Amino acid sequence: MRLLMAIAQSCDDVLSQADYKHIFQFVYSTHRPLAAMAGEFLFTRLLSNPAVPVMRAGTSEEDRHRDLTLARVRALIQFYTENQLHQHVLYLVDSLWDSAGSLLKDWAFFTSLLTVHPSSSEQALSSTEEALVIEILLASVRQAAEGPPLAGRSTGKKVISTKEKRLQTDDCAKLTEHFLKVLPDLLSKYSEDAEKLVYFLKIPQYFQTDTCGDEYMESVQALLTGLEAAVYTHTDAALLEAAVRSYHNLCANDSHWQHLAASSISQLIQRWTHTLGSCLENAVSDGTFIGDEDKKEEILSTLKKLTAFNNAQDLTKWGTYELVSKLLVVELQSGGMPVEMITEALSCVCYCILWNLNNFGEGATSRESALHQRSQLRAFCEKCHRCLSHTEQVVREQAFVCLSDVLVAHSYQLQMWDSSAGAPLLYTPEPRLQKALLSFILEHVFTGPEQHSHSNTGSEGKGVVNWPEDLHRRRNLLAAYCKLIVHSVLEMSMAAEIFKHYMRYYNDFGDIIKETLNRTRQMDKIESARTLVLCLQQLYLRLKQEQDTGSVCSSGVQTYSSIKELARRFSLTFGWDQIKSRESLAMIHRDGIEFVFQGFVQQSEKHSPPYLSYLTILSEFSSKLLKLDKKTIYSYLQRYTGEQSISNREECWMPLIYYRASLQGTAEGEDAVSFISSDTNKQLAH
Where is the Cohesin subunit SCC3/SA HEAT-repeats domain (predicted)? Predict the structure, then answer.
């Protein structure tokens, strides 16, 4: 890149426009040094000397600077727009930061473009250009406050030097001072445009609240007024989240304006809880929801705001749990509530429970307090359990996520519990709830092959399903369930159903399942190995049952070779440290031998155990055994196999020959290879 830049500076006609266009694409590279060099190339070629309108005589230096800066910004906008990469502004700003930092940190100019009416010589920004200027403005603020690296562009842990830290602190102070003055006007101007407003609401997150003193109180009050107006008017989730994060920063313990921001939040919450309480009195009668459309809209709007703030702050003192729980009770008793209202209510109550768990044990806790908290937790889990069978999928999924969150949080609290705080909050999910969680995952995550198309159009023309979003949603659900296992909320054996799908859904969920397997092994090596055994044996028994009945295997039943391949993949997860895994591997072999021969009595030469073919699956783990352990396992095998069966060469005994050879390290099992590799009914019949 440096060489190309030197060539371009020396010989202007060597590189074509197509060459430049290709080179400039590297500003979006994940390798930051390359992206920064491409950014310098871009700045030198397009931004350093852009075309500037002819100046009138007597034009001041300030106007000339403004015209030059405006020309650079328009050139940057044109470059970005032509590339049509509308989700990579952060990467573009990061690439240009080292070479065009002074331009990007000219926040006074950027905000003047948005607040000052253009002069007669200036062309007003279009709506698209205005939106991009706002996005670049926020990206530059983030870059100044947090600095590189961006997510996906990290080359390792960066150690910030004292000079860089001082520069970052100075930039934070400057942006705080500037935006405290202009942000209230910007919030007012764009108060009706939620899409643009959300960018401005994010800026206070980067304020340096511990350096600016009382002289900015008036500006802070104006800013809080703008924040209040924004959350009062809009219910967009991204906008509410941005506002909540900004409030959170202004309420920081070291903030000079903590009392002002906290008072503003308190007034908002008090107003919303009063509104919600009044609405519920009018909309609920005898346990039935009777609200009209206007009342539904008002309740939903208030719920969204309470949920957003409850995510960041404990709202227990305003009675949020009791208030919102009424909605869930009404839905479970009589139904009829809008779907979005149910999901918001579930989220809000979930946050209440999480805050209670977080606060429980901070001081001395009484038995009565523990019983009350457990009663709340059990009641919420029961509500979520019932919602798992709701007719609407979005409600079922929200209930599952909420259940997973509170159960994992409760488990973590027990692990970190300080005995000096008193009695812990004990709660164990009922077996039927545990089964419901597993059933939910099998139904909503591991869908059939017919669901794996990249797009699907509904019969009623509902549009194309977004496959990446659907996969992301299913991955989140599976990850939530796996957390329940690794946090010991669910029995480790319940992971067997997940491990069964390791090969079939390897591309979609392989990383999640493998990480779960590794975590369970860290928790308990033997129990984790038993779970693998359970997984393989259940798959084997199901396949054998299908073939014994003579029915055609359904799509959910794996073939013999796929089970064998799954065992091979499981064996690979033990790595190369045979000593570390010897107990687990020995247990897998002993359990497998017992599974095949337990209770078997040989009646004739051609009479073999019904599950003998399982030994070929078990042989996939033989290569991981130490030589000494192979001898021990072989001796254990001989206890179950008589001399007659050991020397028998009948076809029905081929799996035993193959398994014995895998333990002895000989070529004795080569004759059984063709038998092992086919998916025939004959294979399992013996």
Answer: 91-355
